[in-house]
Amino acid sequence: MDLRKLVERRKLTDRLFAALGICCVLIALLTLVVLMGDLARQGLSRIDWQFMTSFPSRAAARAGILSAWVGSLMIMLVTVITAVPLGVAAGVYLEEYAPKNRLTTFIEINISNLAGVPSIVYGLMALGLFIYQLGMNRSTLAGGLTLACLILPIVIVATRESLRTIPSNIREAAFAIGASKWQVVSHHLLPYSAGGIATGVIIATSRALGETAPLITIGALTFIAFLPPPPVMSEPPFVSFQWLHDEFTVLPIQMFNWVSRPQPEFQVNAAAAGLVLVAMTLSLNGAAIWLRYRMRKRIKW
Fold first, then answer.
1. Is the peptide bond before 237 cis (omega within 30 degrees of 0)?
2. How far is Cα 67 from Cα 54, in angstroms, rounded to an integer?
3. Structurally, how many domains does the chain consist of?
4. Per-residue model confidence as pLDDT tens digits over 21-45
């Protein structure tokens, strides 16, 4: 009798916890729907070809986000190219190669702590290092490296956690047939952990795309009426890196500029820019999820 009551009590606890979890999920979804509905109500009618292809203006009706969304894409390109290879390499080294001693433990603890540091701290670090010491000025390169430092701990932690999920018998089987350490890592561990690493990269890039504080700290502009030269040209030398040294703005900063103005027309522009930013985030995440699915499917076969 006591055993039956104990089982029933545990089942009741499970049902209560499941109901609580469903309520929490519904509250989060409801909040998201309300926020997105409010943005759509204010800014959806403002999104058109003119809004997407026009530069910022003092007149709200003529203002657009061309320089902002192009700047966001350029910043994310520099961020991903810098942070992902470094983060994956550092995670692989710490998990598979680094000796287990006090120094390694100290490094691991600090990497985990850096993943939770406020973004403004990275902005202050970048201001002192990239702007004052290295003389990068308010360039796309400085902004991309700043966000790369911001998401680097997240990529490292995600890489290590993904490698830990791989069963040890895979490593042992590879070593048993004479594979070297690098062959085990490159042929077995990285392919099988690619899905988890990609998930960490998706989360990290989503955070970086919406960051404003570190970019404002390093001096990102709020009004830019020009585009940098394209990285690929039709004339020799065909490849240009001048865009890395040009000034930039991004969508969150453009939204901050419009929200700070008292005119209601600029509030509508900010809502429209917010919808575009959400669409960009979902598009980049969707592309990354598709790549992750393709990698997992290829591994299964």
1. yes
2. 8
3. 2
4. 999 999 999 998 898 888 888 888 8
Give 299: exposed, middle or buried? Use CB within 10 Å, 0-12, 13-18, 19+.
exposed
pLDDT for position 88: 92
Alpha carbon separation from 18 to 11, 12, 266, 283 (Å, rounded): 10, 10, 44, 32
Domain that holds residue 26: 1-46
Which token pair is 266? 């600029």
Separation in Å, CA 244 to CA 136, 184, 203, 211, 299: 10, 37, 25, 19, 36
The pTM score is 0.84
The residues facing 239 across adjacent strands are: 232
Backbone angles phi, psi at 106, to 5 degrees: -65, -40
Stretch 170-193: mean pLDDT: 85
179 DSSP assignment: -
Residues making up the chain, counted from first to last? 301
Q: Does one domain contain both 62 and 31?
A: no
Task: Say yes or no: 189 and 129 in one domain.
Answer: yes
> Do 284 and 139 belong together in one domain?
yes
Model confidence at 301, in pLDDT bands (50, 70, 90)?
Answer: very low
CA distance 156 to 163: 11
Residue from 76, 153, 101, 97 nearest 122 by CA: 153
Inter-residue contact 140 to 71 (CB < 8 Å): yes
Domain shared by 19 and 154, yes or no: no
State how far the Cα of 132 lies from the Cα of 128, in Å rounded to an integer.
5
- Tokens 């202050």, residue? 124
Per-residue pLDDT tens over the stretch 246-280? 888 888 888 888 888 888 888 888 889 888 888 88
CA angle 89, 92, 97 (to 5 degrees): 115
Distance, CA of 72 to CA of 52 (rounded, Å): 13
